[in-house]
Write a structure and sequence with these properties.
With 639 residues, the chain is of the alpha/beta class. The protein contains 20 helices and 21 strands. The protein starts with a strand and ends with a helix. The structure holds fe (ii) ion.
């Protein structure tokens, strides 16, 4: 009877590994966290080792091994695209082929060698892996499944239907017509890095006006009623060239692409807003088609475009589905998890654990616009909430470092830290937050997926008007307009936001509750672009975007007890159950993995306090109740 399945994704971006045992996730991790190379695409040796260690087994004890896509089919697509565009595509053909012929075509051998096994390697399909990652760990017994990304083998989007252990793919859209590549083209043209700057484009959109939306619809992309799209290939160089966009973009949008080091102007903001509007429209249309095709009232979502949390928020509010669940590792890292699930249910024929046995799913439909003020301040008990029922364990699936591990590491480094008791820790951290301190919080198992969810997070006071710019400029060393996200106690979310459902993975954007917003100061309505940022818009300005929205993380105690207790203690001190949560890293670095990574990041930035499980360290001059200051200036300069 097979029990253990290893899923892998690699060789494109965000390589990762995931281990299932008896159909449950034992561990999942991205390679970049271990190698410290952002979006590392190399074989995930470290991630595999970490998963095997967590399970306490060797590679010989794994029953099936799966890779998340089919290299030969992808090769076929590349070859066909290049041949279709000779001679224009010849240059990229010359660049890509040695890699394919030398490595990717012999992938099974490579993987066996890397793993040290002779076991057969099974290959999934890229979008089926995404679909499996969206449906199988979801809390739904039955659901429509939509995947949207740049491109897999040939597929760029798919619609499927999951029921129990069955997952049927119903429709697909094929390369080169791709929502992900459309968004990436504008990411490139607005001067950001493709496959990682898409988030910045989404963050920039609210500062702009959809001034170019019509031009894009007229000349660049045809959006059909059913959500399928057709790109005008005259404008896209990715089929045959090495850049994303051609001269047509320059003519349409008044000049060349922004250089990565050039200033962000109103044009980039307007372009971001325009493409964002179109992508949201496409997401809604695809969702309606999926609803029609499947008759389902629930939707599962994955693929890189599912990280567009502004679009997800609109799907929840305006789409045809009552419930929505999004795979937190929606990008290609999640393909490792998806192919593992697909092998378990579809290849090994194992039944799916009944969603009923896992409790009921929570969302209760679209949030009410303009939250009723009378409800503000009324605390519902957590016991009122139905149990939380997906299989992701709060996405806390990576390695953990115990207090003993941390104490041992501190000793080797000659570093001192105060060890607080578990009962006193939340109160001490909450007081520091209330005093305006910025805290690195390192505790529990590392997150799987791109968001930090309280295990490797930098936290701060959401009420502070200066927190956003302080954190961006002094801690993260990144663009000042980038918004921060709030983490809020699950049972209090409807008091503060126009949302009353789970958003545990920070993948939904919704408005700040009307009662928490501030009236616009006279003369500020006419502000443009980045200047809008200077106006406090709510009583939690550090997490309120310029369009009064926020990217929300709801926190339940059963997922992350210490994190929950810190926010609860902060609420007791301040009456505010909301804190700022941003990932524990600086610009261009992966999120921290080990205590050492966390300490280095702490010392490189202006963070005030570092919490490593129960160990607390503070920078000189920062007083921690019950603790001494331990980081000397010498230590600071030594890092
Ligand atoms: Fe993908």
């Amino acid at each position: 009877m097979p029990s253990t399945v290893l899923g892998l994704s690699a060789y494109y971006h965000d390589s990762a590994a995931c281990l299932l045992r008896d159909g449950r996730i034992v561990a999942a991790a991205q390679e970049e966290r271990f190698t410290r190379v952002k979006h590392d695409e190399r074989f995930p040796s470290h991630a595999v080792a970490s998963c095997l260690k967590e399970a306490g087994i060797s590679i010989d004890q794994v029953d099936a091994i799966g890779f998340y896509e089919k290299p030969l089919v992808k090769f076929d697509r590349l070859l066909e695209s290049y041949l279709a565009s000779v001679p224009r595509g010849y240059q990229s053909y010359l660049m890509a082929m040695p890699l394919w012929l030398g490595r990717k075509l012999w992938l099974a051998d490579d993987i066996q060698r890397e793993l040290g096994t002779t076991q057969t390697i099974l290959f999934g399909d890229h979008h089926e892996s995404h679909a499996a990652s969206a449906f199988y760990p979801s809390p739904f017994e039955e659901a429509a499944v939509v995947t949207i990304d740049g491109v897999g083998e040939w597929t760029t989007s798919s619609i499927g239907h999951g029921r129990g252990a069955d997952l049927t793919m119903l429709r697909e859209m094929r390369f080169p017509h791709s929502v992900g590549l459309l968004y990436s083209a504008f990411t490139y043209f607005t001067g950001f890095k493709v496959n990682e700057g898409e988030y910045k484009v989404m963050g920039l959109a609210p500062y702009g006006e959809p001034r170019y939306e019509q031009a894009i619809r007229d000349h660049v992309v045809e959006v059909h009623e059913d959500g399928s799209i057709r790109l005008n290939l005259e404008h896209f160089e990715f089929v045959h060239g090495l850049t994303m966009t051609g001269n047509g973009f320059e003519r349409l949008f008044g000049g060349p692409a922004r250089r990565p080091d050039g200033p962000v102007t109103q044009r980039e903001m307007d372009l971001a807003r325009s493409v964002q509007e179109i992508v949201e429209d496409v997401m809604l249309r695809m969702a309606r088609t999926a609803h029609r095709e499947t008759g389902s009232t629930r939707l599962c979502l994955a693929g890189g475009v599912a990280l567009n949390c502004v679009g997800n928020g609109r799907l929840l509010r305006e789409g045809p589905f009552v419930d929505l669940w999004i795979q937190p590792a929606a990008g290609d890292a999640g393909g490792a998890l998806g192919v593992a699930y697909a092998l378990w249910h579809r290849y090994l024929g194992q039944p799916r654990r009944s969603a009923e046995g896992r409790g009921a799913w929570v969302p209760r439909g679209p949030a009410k616009a303009g939250h009723d003020e009378r409800e503000v301040g009324r605390v519902r008990l957590q016991a009122d909430l139905p149990p939380y029922a997906d299989e992701m364990q709060g996405a806390l699936l990576g390695p953990r470092y115990s207090d003993d591990d941390i104490a041992a590491w501190l000793r080797t480094q000659n570093l001192a830290a105060e060890r607080l008791s578990r009962p006193e820790l939340p109160g001490v951290v909450a007081q520091l937050l209330a005093d305006g301190k910025v805290i690195g919080l390192f505790q529990g198992r590392m997150e799987f997926g791109p968001r930090a969810l309280g295990a490797r997070s930098i936290i701060g006071d959401a009420r502070s008007p200066s927190m956003q710019s302080v954190q961006n400029l002094k801690i993260k060393f990144r663009e000042s307009y980038r918004p921060f996200a709030p983490a809020i106690l699950r049972e209090r979310v409807a008091e503060w936001f126009e949302l009353d459902c789970e958003s545990p993975y920070m993948l939904l954007v919704a408005g700040v509750a009307a009662a928490r917003r501030l009236p616009a100061a006279p003369g500020t309505e006419t502000l443009f672009g980045i200047d809008k940022l200077k106006v406090p818009r709510s009583t939690i300005p550090a997490v309120t975007h310029v369009d009064d929205s926020a990217r929300i993380q709801t926190v339940r105690r059963e997922d992350n007890p210490l994190y929950y207790d810190i926010i609860t203690a902060f609420d007791a001190l301040t009456g505010c159950p909301v804190i700022v949560n941003t990932s524990f890293n600086v610009k261009d670095e992966p999120i921290v993995c080990t205590p050492e990574d966390a300490y280095r990041c702490f010392m490189k930035t202006h963070m005030d306090v570092l919490v490593l499980e129960s160990h607390v360290m503070a920078k000189p001059g920062v007083r921690v109740a019950g603790a001494r200051n331990h980081v000397s200036a010498e230590a600071a300069s030594a890092v």
